[in-house]
Design goal:
125 residues; 2 domains; 6 strands; alpha+beta; two-stranded antiparallel ribbon; binds flavin-adenine dinucleotide; FAD/NAD(P)-binding domain
């Protein structure tokens, strides 16, 4: 293929697709997989759906949330209460793990806090 474009986008994950959506010129997206989405893909196996990674939206501002909601047909949006847990050492901890470490055994909780406190220090070693 012989083609000139202003933007060559490597990867059709959410970043590549978003960039393409706002690009002020022509573009070509190259994707190594057979489908777009990157880590935002979902596969279905038997009766279950599995998210590769992303499964809920982080809206950093109300403005962005509104922008998203305005661009989607309200009938296509399904609201679900989320009840996700992680089995850790035989106990259930609410997801996401990192914001629920207070549910761990006291000693383990303190270890996590200690590691978090010294995180930057360790990163520099
Ligand atoms: C376990 C987990 C859970 C997460 N949960 C959430 C969540 O709940 N909510 C949320 O907002 N975010 C979540 N994230 C983060 C979110 O999934 C990522 O930030 C986002 O998907 C990254 O998108 P991206 O387009 O930058 O990269 P990717 O999704 O990795 O896309 C990159 C694309 O480039 C393609 N590619 C790579 N190399 C090449 C190449 N050489 N040539 C051609 N194509 C190439 C890949 O196939 C892929 O399609 C989670 C991440 C993980 C790992």
């Amino acid at each position: 293929m012989d083609r000139n474009v202003k933007y060559l986008i490597i990867g059709a994950g959410i970043s590549g697709l978003t960039f393409a959506n706002y690009a002020d010129g022509d573009y070509l997206i190259i994707e190594k997989e057979k489908e777009v989405g990157g880590y935002c893909r979902t596969i279905k196996k038997k009766d279950y759906v599995w998210d590769y990674a992303g499964h809920f939206f982080h809206f950093s501002t109300d403005e962005f949330k509104k922008k998203f909601l305005d661009s989607v047909n309200p009938e296509d949006i399904k609201y679900k209460d989320k009840n996700t847990k992680i089995i850790y050492k035989g106990e259930l901890v609410d997801y996401p793990f990192q914001t629920n470490i207070h549910q761990l055994e006291k000693e383990e909780f303190i270890d996590c806090l200690y590691d978090l406190f010294h995180k930057e220090e360790k990163g520099r070693l």
